[in-house]
Specification:
about 260 residues, Rossmann fold, 6-stranded parallel beta sheet, two-stranded parallel sheet, 10 strands, binds adenosine-5'-diphosphate, binds magnesium ion
């Protein structure tokens, strides 16, 4: 852990609180989150749950505290351009080559291993490890965004979970807000426990204003708190001005300010 990092005593405390009157989920009593890790690995319960948005928001919050934060999306798929990596680079305002941030990108919108079988393009774990070492040397804290969920195959015998284990950072689980998420979070936490990986926290993402929330959205966070010993649990609102696909940070600052107190 760098001195810079220690100095700021970085913690993202995010305990779920009841929604406020405007219906925006809030939540936020700072507690110590990152103590000695040098980074966080952000995994999803699925694809499209908000990993990139949350990783970007964390990067911005850390940067605002003066932490020298690097970002990484080791493997991405789908489309000509690596949109996640570009979004993270923009949010973190780092000058690192895109090749380091995103050493592997494949165009088919498939799990990496399957995409590599379709294109015949071999995925080099060495390339990922080399980029990781470079970023780790350069920055005092690293945020790494996974691909899809934990058991997504990067190669036939290497999953996102294996990569997370290799990097060794505590895990942030990003999950949906609504119906189905209890099962997804439960499965993810169980797999992490079995792999003996430390869970830094759970982020439930994409809550609509309270008037529009489903019963599941209104009860899920409390259920998670009762079912699991999660260090911190955050509810993040849906902020319609944000778009990973369009590379628009929009009012992501609202997410940072409301939900990611460091
Ligand atoms: N809290 C949020 N507010 C508004 N849009 C969001 C939010 N979280 C995610 N999105 C949008 O939902 C989509 C999926 O989010 P993303 O972060 O790319 O998910 P993942 O990285 O898990 O695939 C993107 O279009 C993104 O802009
Ligand atoms: Mg993403």
């Amino acid at each position: 852990m760098s001195e810079n990092f220690k100095k700021h005593h970085v913690g993202a405390g995010l305990r779920a609180r009841p929604p406020n009157k405007t219906g925006q989920p809030q939540g936020v009593a700072p507690t110590t989150l990152f103590t000695s890790s040098g980074g966080l690995f952000i995994v999803g319960t699925d694809t499209g749950v908000g990993k990139t948005v949350i990783t970007a928001a964390l990067a911005m919050a850390l940067r605002a505290k003066g932490v020298d934060v690097g970002v990484m999306k080791p493997v991405s798929t789908g489309g000509k351009r690596p949109l996640d990596a570009l979004f993270l680079k923009k949010a973190a305002q780092v000058a690192d080559p895109l090749d380091w941030i995103n050493p592997v990108h494949l165009t088919p919108p498939l799990a990496p291993w399957v995409a590599s079988r379709v294109t015949g393009q071999k995925i080099s774990l060495q390339k990922i490890r080399q980029a990781y070492r470079r970023l780790q040397t350069k920055h005092s804290f690293l945020l790494v965004e996974g691909t899809g969920g934990l058991l997504v195959p990067i190669t036939a015998s290497f999953t996102i979970l294996d990569l997370a284990r290799e990097f060794g950072f505590p895990i942030v689980v990003v999950a949906r807000a609504g119906l189905g998420t209890l099962n997804h979070i439960g499965l993810t936490l169980r797999a992490l426990k079995e792999a003996k990986l430390e869970v830094a926290g759970v982020v439930m993402n994409g809550f609509p204003p309270i008037q529009k929330q489903t019963l599941a959205e209104r009860t899920n966070a409390e259920a998670i708190k009762s079912l699991y010993k999660v260090g911190w649990l955050t509810k993040v609102p849906w902020e319609p001005t944000v778009s990973v696909e369009k590379g628009i940070l929009g009012n992501i600052q609202l997410i940072v300010n409301k939900c990611i107190k460091i």
